[in-house]
């Protein structure tokens, strides 16, 4: 009886928190992509068609924003979500 109670306790502890980090990470990356697409559109360009060597300062700013946003999303990958 005591071991069954211990197993039930362990199972309830493991089920209490789910790891939804990959879902949150995907949503965060989607938001970053939408932001960079909007930024490129406002700068009069299409994302993915401009080389960094010939990019305007506005495009370089969009790239910097996209990099910062993507790196901020990385912390959500392994976060437990209750």
Automatic annotation (TrEMBL):
<feature type="signal peptide">
    <location>
        <begin position="1"/>
        <end position="20"/>
    </location>
</feature>
<protein>
    <recommendedName>
        <fullName>Cysteine-rich protein</fullName>
    </recommendedName>
</protein>
<keyword id="KW-0732">Signal</keyword>
